[in-house]
């Protein structure tokens, strides 16, 4: 289910109403375990939608949904935490110098996002850092920064870019020398807008004029800045939660979750360790708990924003193990 980046809280109830109606129309799925997942900006929406489901269950709305937990991939929880994590991440990945980092840390007092515009020393430090990062692909720091001929406005803090070539070579695979994964967006749009595909997916004619990966044209006006309180509420109600990040993603770096997870006052259940696929390190993981709230955090080594695009085998192994309640 696609959610817009800006929404009204009442819309969450509508989405849950759709889900309940779908279950009533397909009763064989009512007892199936239900998980809510959100990626990127959906990191806010996953716990919010989950809370609406739990409230509906508590109010004895029918059908009762077999809610188990939620999943957040390369997600945004609070921009003041997640976006602020970009500069420490950039320093840790050797993208900016120690001098620039120390200047920013001291002059900005550790607040790099939404900082005081009157703090000229901080503004100068941030400007120098942004210039260093100018040609870095924020969604995967090892990949080339591709053309932004079809760029979208950046509600995610930094402008996201999508490479769409108007030639006949849309479906050509990128070469080893220039892996522009943004071509995936173009291919998915061609696929999803194909009439035979929409017919196979039982999309009602006329309901989707033109499917796009990121639809910024939806006229929503209200925004909830942070979802941290929803996570805190779940530590009281209980849920199984998976939070994962590609470790080469600077748009939503793994440093963000490692900053906000301790704010939930959880305790470490399993210490930081490597997790393996085919005998090789696929990333690192740590588990936390509080009451009936269990949170698994994991990185995917070498992945960027939208981790499964870069590491599909490892992503499948991670989610399969987590669903089965097995250690990663």
UniProtKB/TrEMBL annotation:
What cellular component terms from Gene Ontology apply here?
extracellular region
Cite the InterPro entries for this sequence.
Answer: AB_hydrolase_fold, Peptidase_S10, Ser_caboxypep_ser_AS
Location of this chain's protein in the cell: Secreted
The cross-references to SUPFAM superfamilies, in alphabetical order and at most eight, read: alpha/beta-Hydrolases
Identify the keywords attached in UniProt to this record, alphabetized: Carboxypeptidase, Hydrolase, Protease, Secreted
Would you kindly state one Gene Ontology biological process term found in this protein's UniProt entry?
proteolysis
Return the Pfam families for the record. Answer: Peptidase_S10 (PF00450)
Q: What EC class does the entry list?
A: hydrolase
Output the superkingdom of the source species.
Answer: Eukaryota
EC number(s) given by UniProt: 3.4.16.-
Q: Which GO terms describe its molecular function?
A: acyltransferase activity, transferring groups other than amino-acyl groups; serine-type carboxypeptidase activity
Hey, which family's this protein in?
A: Belongs to the peptidase S10 family.
Protein name per its UniProtKB record = Carboxypeptidase
């Amino acid at each position: 289910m696609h959610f817009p980046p800006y929404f009204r809280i009442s819309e969450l109830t509508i989405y849950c109403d759709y889900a309940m109606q779908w279950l009533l129309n397909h009763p064989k799925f009512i007892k199936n375990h239900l998980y809510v997942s959100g990626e990127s900006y959906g990191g806010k929406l996953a716990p919010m939608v989950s809370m609406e489901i739990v409230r509906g269950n508590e109010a004895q709305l029918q059908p009762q949904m077999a809610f188990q937990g939620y999943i957040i991939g390369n997600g945004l929880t609070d921009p003041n935490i997640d976006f602020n994590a970009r500069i420490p991440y950039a320093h840790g990945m050797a993208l900016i110098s120690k001098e620039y980092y120390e200047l920013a840390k001291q002059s900005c007092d550790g607040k790099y996002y939404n900082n005081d515009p009157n703090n000229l020393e901080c503004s100068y430090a941030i400007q120098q850092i942004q210039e260093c990062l100018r040609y870095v692909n924020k969604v995967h720091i090892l990949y080339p920064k591709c053309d932004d001929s079809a760029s979208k406005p950046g509600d995610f803090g930094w402008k996201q870019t999508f490479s769409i070539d108007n030639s006949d070579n849309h479906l050509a695979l990128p070469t080893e020398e220039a892996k522009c994964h943004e071509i995936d967006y173009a291919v998915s749009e061609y696929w999803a807008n194909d009439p035979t595909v929409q017919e196979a997916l039982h999309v009602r004619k006329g309901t989707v004029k033109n499917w796009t990966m990121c639809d910024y044209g939806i006229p929503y006006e209200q925004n909830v800045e942070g979802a941290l309180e929803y996570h805190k509420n779940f530590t009281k109600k209980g849920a199984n939660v998976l939070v994962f990040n590609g470790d080469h993603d600077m748009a939503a770096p793994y440093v963000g979750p490692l900053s906000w997870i301790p704010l939930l006052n959880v305790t470490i259940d399993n210490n930081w360790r490597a997790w393996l696929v085919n005998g090789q390190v696929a990333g690192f993981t740590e588990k936390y708990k509080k009451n009936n709230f269990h949170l698994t955090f994991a990185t995917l080594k070498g992945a960027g924003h939208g981790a499964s695009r870069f590491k599909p085998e490892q992503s499948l192994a991670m989610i399969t193990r987590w669903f089965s309640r097995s250690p990663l």
